[in-house]
UniProtKB/TrEMBL annotation:
<feature type="binding site">
    <location>
        <begin position="89"/>
        <end position="93"/>
    </location>
    <ligand>
        <name>GTP</name>
    </ligand>
</feature>
<dbReference type="GO" id="GO:0005525">
    <property type="term" value="F:GTP binding"/>
</dbReference>
<dbReference type="Pfam" id="PF16658">
    <property type="entry name" value="RF3_C"/>
</dbReference>
<dbReference type="GO" id="GO:0003924">
    <property type="term" value="F:GTPase activity"/>
</dbReference>
<dbReference type="GO" id="GO:0006449">
    <property type="term" value="P:regulation of translational termination"/>
</dbReference>
<dbReference type="InterPro" id="IPR005225">
    <property type="entry name" value="Small_GTP-bd"/>
</dbReference>
<keyword id="KW-0547">Nucleotide-binding</keyword>
<dbReference type="InterPro" id="IPR038467">
    <property type="entry name" value="RF3_dom_3_sf"/>
</dbReference>
<dbReference type="InterPro" id="IPR032090">
    <property type="entry name" value="RF3_C"/>
</dbReference>
<dbReference type="GO" id="GO:0016150">
    <property type="term" value="F:translation release factor activity, codon nonspecific"/>
</dbReference>
<keyword id="KW-0342">GTP-binding</keyword>
<dbReference type="Pfam" id="PF22042">
    <property type="entry name" value="EF-G_D2"/>
</dbReference>
<comment type="similarity">
    <text>Belongs to the TRAFAC class translation factor GTPase superfamily. Classic translation factor GTPase family. PrfC subfamily.</text>
</comment>
<feature type="binding site">
    <location>
        <begin position="21"/>
        <end position="28"/>
    </location>
    <ligand>
        <name>GTP</name>
    </ligand>
</feature>
<protein>
    <recommendedName>
        <fullName>Peptide chain release factor 3</fullName>
    </recommendedName>
</protein>
<dbReference type="InterPro" id="IPR027417">
    <property type="entry name" value="P-loop_NTPase"/>
</dbReference>
<comment type="function">
    <text>Increases the formation of ribosomal termination complexes and stimulates activities of RF-1 and RF-2. It binds guanine nucleotides and has strong preference for UGA stop codons. It may interact directly with the ribosome. The stimulation of RF-1 and RF-2 is significantly reduced by GTP and GDP, but not by GMP.</text>
</comment>
Length: 524
């Protein structure tokens, strides 16, 4: 069959990515500048206002308002130079959740922001690992060059050492802080000159070719640049496009998001270098994005974005073929067909309806309780699965119950739905059938409590547990093997698989020593 040229063209135009960073590195600022460049917002400050009191998309996002953080991920699409760019927002606060991890499974590349003064920070490290484990291409933006930070060479060294990835500086800064004069683009062999008014706005972006650089930046800075570039050329890594696309080398860009400096040229390089949607493994072999038949998977379910409707939205990443509103699709898990009548696209906090989507795009599907995280949807009866999304090993645990016994029914309904959404992991204790929650970030507890109260009318009593590690096992007779130990707790997950919760590393080691034949896994 002749390939659908239109489909191929649309796929090649897509760039779907997420930004990873430690809080305050400048994710919101960079996102906003990118949206501005794409004409998706008319003035900057729009995205920012999500952090202020203006944001009122739904009532449970009260938590966002109160804490000034973005709890939920949204999807933003804009076009730039004949490309369609999807930014999947990930919560940027310290206390992150499984949502963040799962969002990273739905992108084709990531942009990692590093604060020039702080270098590689804790959360960046964690998020980086999730991406590099999957071989996702990683683009680095070293931000806040308008302030005094660390030496660029030192930052590169830190990226290589701490994260274990080769770096290749795409541009090189001329000075820093008060003396920041611009960057030298190593591929275009030209400088972008930095000039601001009131430290807020970049006024002029001059592209000066090699011959005239010295005239513009002066003798001293020129000889330093010459020296540093020579050093990079001789002793630094060589540029390897393949390695970049396999996530083995990270191209590094220096800039200043707040003044927009370096952002346009970053985006230009990014759309050229970042891969379009590629093939994915499925239960029936590799699925290419230009396979005619539509397919995609649900990586996130979010409830009640609109309090007037009390609905849920399943976020579907399109992986192959074309999504069309109203089309028939089969849910792999149940093999039932359904009409995909509502396709919602997300832009910042607004929702709009979409009729057509291509691989790389994210579609929000109205979900009356049909979908589960990790579900695959196919455009034909001959379904396949993109596999279960990995469950992440929770690090915090608590016993929960409804404060009022009369609310049992609502309590169980809430627990069931919220665990299907992936908001929390739910277990029951082997001994008394008590409900235990497991989360990756403490904030998930807070959101859980809030939603149980506002969506299910149940007030929750929490008793936090001292356990820190969850280990799945399929070993026989696990009840007797765990009996009598005070620093572990045996629970069962929602698939009735036994999970041992350990209080600390010592307890974990002690158990392993005593039961060398018991296999323990970090996730299901
Ligand atoms: P997020 O928490 O990663 O989303 O970070 P924000 O984008 O909210 O930025 C955190 C703070 O750093 C804010 O006060 C920004 O104004 C500031 N900021 C962001 N980018 C820059 C930059 O390039 N230079 C300077 N000097 N400040 C910046």
């Amino acid at each position: 069959m002749e390939k659908d040229k239109r489909l191929e063209t649309e796929i090649n135009k897509r760039r779907t990515f997420a930004i990873i960073s430690h809080p305050d590195a400048g994710k919101t600022t960079l996102t906003e500048k990118l949206l501005y460049l794409g004409g998706a917002i008319r003035s900057t400050g729009t995205v920012k206002s999500r952090k202020s009191a203006k944001f009122a998309t739904s009532d449970w996002m009260e938590i966002e308002k109160q804490r000034g953080i973005s709890v939920t991920s949204s999807v933003m699409q804009f076009s730039y130079q004949d490309h369609y760019i999807n930014i999947l927002d990930t919560p940027g606060h310290e206390d992150f959740s499984e949502d963040t991890y799962r969002t990273l499974l739905a992108v084709d590349s990531v942009v990692m922001i590093i604060d020039a003064a702080k270098g590689v920070e804790a959360q960046t490290k964690k998020l980086f690992k999730v991406c590099s484990d999957q071989g996702i291409p990683i683009f680095t933006f070293v931000n806040k060059m308008d302030r005094n930070g660390r030496e660029p060479l030192e930052l590169l060294e830190e990226i290589e050492e701490v994260l274990g990835i080769e770096s290749y500086p795409m541009n090189w800064p001329l000075g820093m802080g008060q003396n920041f004069k611009g960057v030298y683009d190593r591929q275009l062999e030209q400088i972008e000159f930095y000039e601001t008014k009131d430290k807020e706005q970049m006024l002029k972006l001059e592209k000066i070719n090699n011959l005239n650089i010295e005239k513009v930046i002066g003798k001293e800075m020129f000889s330093q640049l010459h020296e540093e570039i020579s050093l990079l050329n001789e002793a630094g890594n060589t540029y390897k496009k393949d390695a970049i696309q396999q996530g083995k080398q990270t191209p590094v860009f220096f800039g200043s998001a707040i003044t927009s400096f370096g952002v346009p040229s970053f985006l230009d390089h990014f759309i050229r270098l970042a891969p379009p949607p590629s093939s994915r493994e499925s239960s029936k072999g590799i699925v290419k994005p230009d396979k005619e038949i539509f397919s995609g998977f649900v990586f996130k379910i979010q409830a009640n974005m609109n309090p007037a409707h009390r609905d849920r939205i399943a976020f579907l990443r399109v992986c192959s073929g074309k999504f069309e509103k109203g089309m028939e699709a089969w849910l792999e898990r149940t093999n039932k067909s359904m009409k995909l009548s509502q396709g919602q696209q997300f832009f910042a906090s607004e929702r709009g309806n979409i009729d057509i989507a291509y691989p790389g795009d994210i579609v929000g599907l109205y979900d009356p309780g049909t979908y589960q995280i990790g579900d695959t949807l196919c455009g034909s009866k001959d379904t396949f699965s993109y596999g279960d999304l990995p469950q992440f090993s929770p690090e915090h645990f608590a016993k929960v119950r409804a404060k009022k016994a009369l609310k049992q029914k609502h309590f169980h309904k809430g627990i069931k739905q919220l665990s299907e959404e992936g908001a929390v992991q739910v277990y029951r204790t082997a001994k008394w059938d008590e409900t235990v929650l497991g989360v990756v970030g403490m904030l998930q507890f807070e959101i859980f409590e809030y939603r149980m109260k506002h969506e299910y009318g149940v007030e929750i009593q929490f008793d936090s547990l001292p356990h820190q590690y969850a280990r799945w096992t399929s070993s026989e007779d696990i009840e007797s093997k765990t009996k009598g130990s005070s620093n572990l707790l045996l629970v069962y997950d929602q698939n009735e698989l036994p999970v041992i919760l350990f209080e600390n590393n010592f307890a974990l080691r002690w158990f392993k020593d005593k039961n060398p034949d018991v296999q323990l896994r970090e996730s299901r």
